[in-house]
Specification:
Elements (H helix, E strand, L loop, with lengths): L4 E8 L2 E8 L11 E4 L10 H6 L6 E4 L16 H15 L4 E6 L1 H12 L4 E7 L12 H7 L3 H4 L1 H12 L8 H8 L7 H11 L15 E6 L7 H10 L3 E6 L5 H4 L1 H13 L10 H8 L5 H13 L4 H8 L10 E5 L8 H6 L5 E6 L24 H9 L3 E7 L7 H15 L3 E5 L6 E2 L6 E2 H10 L7 E4 L16 E9 L26 E6 L6 H10 L4 E4 L15 H10 L2
Parallel strand pairs: 3-4, 3-5, 5-6, 6-7, 7-8, 9-10, 9-18, 10-11, 11-12, 12-15, 15-16, 16-17, 17-18
Antiparallel strand pairs: 1-2, 2-4, 13-14
């Protein structure tokens, strides 16, 4: 049974607001209503996919800000302070006393201001793909230029062209869903309304008051968000006393395109019992350091610091711990061992650090019988139990498929992918023996290798990992990164140079990697030792490689068992640098 939404116009003083209220379905529990505050230029319809995925017991309130969608613009430009007073009055008009608040992008700034200055009206706070205003770590110039006008809301063909670069995430692969969400039923207000929204945010900053926020706060941030770089979310997390940060694989509008994944995260946060905030949080340190200092006095200090050339960003860094926070490394094991071998139990017990495990269904069982009598095109009954155990432990199995350097037809590989899902419940893959550039034959039909592997990426919508293994250092351009699920094996070889084979420690990785998050890259090392494993993991982190595995087998390895120093590798990867 689905909850229904009522859309109507509500007079709040002299301002008319278009409001939608989805009544909560009675289920015996009392849930706090949720207020959604949208991004710049977007009417309340944009978040419909997210609303549809929320618990139907939650009452959801949405509205079009003045000058957006069906709400007429006010007679003058406004600031966040005026808008937050208007929102509070709207809630009173609708009969709500206290609500949970979720703000996305521009709406996240409004939500921060509302939580700080309308504190009694906000119980919990959810901040999605947003930042601290002025200053913040900004988007690139090309992104900022496209955000300066509402053209993307008016011209679907233009949006189709720029969606990937502007919103990141799944929009880089297929922008159709973004275009549909922003143009099918979305109401566009006058250009003056968009200009007023830009004016409202100009010069606004939340850094002075974030340490004083008392609401439990969930921060959701994408690792492929061109508009709001991830570092902004990390800064907010440091400054908000009772906050938790959840980084998702996706872009700026994942709340729309991946609503089925993110709505339960928000639901769980809003429904969870209250817990005491961490006492050692940086935000608490800031607050304690300024005990007895009123909000007004702090603002005066803040502006004096700016006049002296000490920017708020530098002030925030000064309050942060002097040492860098540890950066852990994710292990994706390359273990071509039969499912009955004890190595798999060791992998399962290390699930906190091991994110993925490559499974080769044809791995020999040690008796020399290859796939133990089972051809690759039939289910091997020995594997499901081990794969299920990995999944229950929270480890994602990656099904091994060789593309034979682009000579295997796409239809054959897609059939293998379907078999993996049907027989073993596996939807993530390692495509080995990859041709990173040039022309792939696709079973005889010549196509660009980039298209060949991009098609494989698009044929795996439910994958968590899509790993591509060219087998050598990848010599390509950044444009060949397909999307947020991709893991590119940037290195496979010995830990140190052996003869003519350059080792990991001696390899210089391409500069274009710095433009991407570390989770896109993987390194698999052979001939490692217990004395160098810590150094190799540290080097991987410094090189921007977020996924790692090292074996002590000689080069080239068979990957038949875990290294003797496995426990050390897991510990060092978890501790990072």
């Amino acid at each position: 049974m689905s909850a229904t939404a009522e859309v109507r116009s509500v007079a709040v003083g002299r301002q008319l607001l278009r409001v939608s209220v989805r009544s909560g379905l009675a289920d015996g529990t009392q849930r706090v209503p949720l207020l959604l505050i949208n991004g710049i230029g977007a009417s309340l319809e944009l978040l419909q996919p997210f609303v549809d995925q929320l618990d139907p017991a939650v009452e959801v309130i949405r509205f079009d800000p003045p000058g957006v969608g069906g709400s007429p613009p006010p007679g003058w430009p406004y600031r966040f302070s005026w808008l937050c007073r208007l929102i509070a009055a709207m809630l009173t008009e609708l009969g709500y006393d206290r609500v949970d608040v979720l703000g996305i992008s521009w709406g996240g700034g409004v939500a921060q201001h509302f939580a700080a200055f309308q504190r009694a009206r906000c119980r919990r706070l959810v901040l999605v793909a947003t930042a601290t205003g002025t200053p913040m770590v900004p988007a690139g110039p090309s992104v900022l230029i496209r955000l300066a006008t509402p053209r993307r809301y008016l011209d679907p063909d233009y949006l189709q062209r720029v969606a990937g670069d502007l919103y990141g995430g799944l929009a880089r692969i297929d922008s159709a869903e973004i275009v549909a969400a922003m143009h099918d039923g979305l109401r566009v207000g006058p250009s003056r309304g968009y200009l007023y929204q830009l004016t409202a945010a100009a010069g606004w900053a939340s850094l002075p008051f974030l340490p004083w926020l008392r609401q439990p706060t969930l921060i959701l941030a994408g690792d492929d968000d061109p508009i709001i770089p991830l570092v902004n979310a990390r800064l907010m997390h440091r400054l908000i006393r009772d906050s938790r940060l959840r980084v998702y694989h996706g872009g700026h509008l994942a709340l729309v395109t991946e609503a089925a994944e993110l709505a339960p995260v928000v639901d769980d946060f809003l429904a969870a019992p209250l817990v005491k905030p961490l006492e050692n949080h940086v935000g608490r340190f800031v607050a304690d350091s300024l005990t007895g200092c009123s909000g007004d006095r702090f603002l005066v200090m803040y502006h004096k610091l700016r006049l002296l050339g000490v920017t708020p960003v530098l002030a925030a860094i000064a309050f942060a711990p002097s040492a860098h926070a540890a950066v852990s490394e994710n292990i994706i094991t390359t273990l071509y061992a039969y499912p009955t071998l004890p190595s798999w139990g060791q992998v399962e017990s290390s699930a906190r650090t091991v994110g993925g495990a490559i499974v080769d269904i044809c791995a020999p069982d040690g008796s020399g019988s290859g796939c133990n009598g089972q051809p690759a095109d039939a289910e091997n009954p020995a594997w499901p139990a081990t794969i299920t155990a990995l999944q229950k432990a929270g480890i994602i199995p990656l099904y091994y498929i060789s593309t034979n350097y682009g000579a295997t037809s796409l239809s054959t590989i897609v059939t293998e992918m379907a078999d993996a899902a049907m027989w073993y419940g596996v939807s993530s893959f390692l495509f080995d023996e990859m041709a990173p550039s040039g022309t792939c034959s696709d079973g005889g039909a010549n196509i660009a290798c980039t298209k060949y592997y991009r098609d494989l990426y698009r044929d795996s919508p439910s994958a968590k990992y899509m790993m591509f293994g060219p087998g050598t250092t990848y010599g390509t351009s950044a444009a060949d990164i397909f999307g947020p699920k991709e893991v590119l094996q940037i290195f496979e070889g010995p830990a140190t140079t052996e003869g003519s084979v350059t080792g990991f420690e001696e390899t210089t990785f391409p500069a274009w990697m710095s433009g991407y998050a570390s989770h896109y890259f993987s390194a698999t090392l052979a001939a490692g030792t217990s004395s160098t494993i810590g150094t190799d993991i540290s080097d991987a982190i410094k090189d921007g490689i977020g996924n790692f595995y090292e074996t002590d087998e000689a080069e080239p390895p068979n990957y038949s068992t875990l290294p003797a120093y496995w426990s050390t590798e897991v510990t060092d990867a978890a501790n990072g640098i």
